[in-house]
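Technical annex, item 7. During the second reporting period the consortium partners agreed on a shared format for inverse folding records so that results from different sites could be compared directly. Each record opens with the tokenized structure and is followed by the designed sequence. A conforming record, contributed by the partner at site C, is shown below for reference.
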């Protein structure tokens, strides 16, 4: 079972949860292994590979590479190269299916010992006409996912709606 956090904030508000709309007004606790984990393994789940290199630069492992770099820069978790040495496992996947209006990058989080899904995150990649803008939107989306994880496990951060400076969450924009 994977729980997805769909970050759909009301424009002009700092709160990113659906409680602003009167939905999910009570927050369930974040699983302890995610809050207390110190070491993380990041896995690459093969996603939709046809978008590379035509729609986006690089290869299908791009989301993994950028997520790994952003998590390392954040420094909250010691990144390990073997899942048996980890407390939590982050699984990264790029999805661009015909049934989706926009491509997505998804991150699932599981307990490394029990393999139980703990949490999940999904962000849509902003559409753009030019490839260089799609590439920027792709990287921005990865940064937003790391910000989502930060906000979830950092006390008080969910209420502040913290996200990388200058970044606009696509789901916050009027469509």
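Designed sequence (site C submission):
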């Amino acid at each position: 079972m994977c729980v997805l956090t769909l970050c759909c904030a009301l424009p002009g508000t700092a709160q990113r949860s659906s409680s602003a709309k009167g939905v999910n007004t009570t927050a369930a606790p974040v699983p302890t292994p995610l809050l207390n984990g110190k070491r993380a393994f990041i896995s690459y789940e093969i996603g939709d590979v046809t978008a590379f290199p035509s729609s986006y630069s690089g290869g299908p492992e791009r989301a993994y590479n950028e997520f790994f770099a952003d998590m390392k820069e954040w420094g909250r978790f010691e990144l390990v190269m073997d899942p048996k040495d980890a407390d939590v496992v982050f699984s990264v996947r790029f999805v661009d299916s015909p049934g989706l209006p926009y491509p997505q990058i998804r991150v699932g989080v599981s307990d490394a010992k029990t393999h139980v899904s703990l949490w999940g995150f999904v962000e849509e990649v902003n559409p753009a006409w030019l490839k260089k803008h799609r590439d920027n939107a792709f990287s921005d989306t990865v940064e937003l996912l790391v910000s989502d994880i930060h906000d979830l496990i950092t006390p008080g951060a969910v209420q502040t709606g913290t996200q990388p400076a200058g970044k606009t969450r696509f789901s916050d924009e009027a469509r």
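The CA atoms of residues 41 and 83 lie 5 Å apart. Confidence is low (pLDDT under 50) at residues 1-20, 158-163. All partners now use this format for quarterly exchanges.
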